[in-house]
Design goal:
The chain has a domain at 85-217 and 243-251: Rossmann fold, CATH 3.40.50. It has helices spanning 2-14, 22-56, 67-70, 105-113, 134-145, 168-172, 176-186, 198-213, 228-234; strands at 93-99, 118-120, 161-167, 188-195, 240-245. The protein starts with a helix and ends in an 8-residue tail after the last strand. It contains nine helices and five strands. The chain is α/β, with parallel strands linked by helices and 253 residues long. The structure holds 2-acetamido-2-deoxy-beta-D-glucopyranose (3 copies). The chain crosses the membrane at residues 23-42.
Length: 253
């Protein structure tokens, strides 16, 4: 550092006062500044160009589901823990909402559960014991999709669609091969729900961690939407990117 400063001051000392007319040197400086300006402007434009291109780049559909795939396979789950009664012959569809924390999945789940025949069971894999190895995961999934899983979201014997919410960091990424296999085997629809605005998601993560510690008067967390009333209040405000696919698109390669 010291050496650098010495060199610098030497250089400064070497510079002699210009002998040419001040007007000439001023014109040179002006031209130089103009050239620099044009160059910088050009580079900026180029950057903006790539940025916009990235922004509008669309996610490509790997495989379009055929019409047959859209017509669901009929399932007649026979739960062990209760009888489906009059609805034992009604088909049931299986789904899993795949998302990340603070992406609006709670809001989306409330929307689904507001239908009498839909039952979405929440983040069942938030409990570590259920996801510490593949066999535990499959066992949990079997219970959900055999309709033997009971939460406050379980409706009645007439449930026509059953699923739950799965965050990417809850064992899903670690065991994706086996999970894809299982999903294909049981015909489970994966609903990918990601928030388009990542910055908002990050802000929300921070707000939530604050909210968790803060004790509110009524003992509720304001950053979560759970009741139907809260849901309808928020319905107009949020733009989510929703892709419902009939296949699970994480590949093995
Ligand atoms: C998975 O973990 C459970 C304990 O939670 C254990 O009993 C079981 O043997 C483990 N299975 C495998 C395949 O490691
Ligand atoms: C939805 O639920 C109602 C009452 O619980 C039932 O009568 C009806 O059959 C169900 N619909 C389907 C498609 O299961
Ligand atoms: C608590 O709940 C009551 C009524 O349910 C409401 O009027 C009040 O504003 C709530 N307080 C807070 C801090 O949310």
């Amino acid at each position: 550092m010291a050496e650098y400063i010495c060199l610098f001051s030497k250089d400064t000392l070497i510079i002699k006062p210009p002998k040419k007319s001040p007007l000439f040197s001023r014109t040179i400086a002006l031209w130089f500044a103009m050239l620099c300006g044009v160059y910088l402007y050009g580079t900026c434009l180029k950057h903006v160009g790539t940025f916009t291109m990235l922004k509008f780049q669309n996610i490509q559909l790997i495989q379009k589901p055929s019409l047959e795939a859209l017509i669901p396979t009929l399932h007649y789950p026979k739960p062990e823990s209760f009888s489906r009664g009059e609805c034992s012959l009604n088909p049931v569809r299986f789904f899993a909402i795949i998302s990340m924390q603070r992406s609006g999945s709670g809001w989306f789940e409330t929307l689904l559960n507001s239908h009498i025949n839909v039952s979405s069971n929440g983040e069942i894999f938030s409990v570590i014991d259920r996801r510490n190895n593949v066999s535990n995961i499959i066992q949990t999934l079997e219970r959900v999709y055999n309709l033997d899983w009971f939460t406050s979201a379980s409706k009645n014997e007439c449930s026509a669609a059953v699923g739950f919410k799965w965050m990417l960091n809850q064992g899903l990424m670690e065991h994706h091969r086996e999970i894809v296999e299982y999903f294909n085997h049981r015909g489970i629809s994966a609903i990918f729900l990601f928030r388009r605005n990542l910055l908002r998601r990050m802000v929300s993560v921070l707000a939530n961690s604050y909210d968790r510690k803060a004790k509110l008067l009524n003992g509720t967390h304001k950053s979560h939407v759970h009741s139907e009333q809260e849901w309808s209040l928020n319905a107009g405000c949020c733009a989510f990117e929703l892709q419902a696919n009939y296949q699970f698109y994480i590949t093995n390669k």
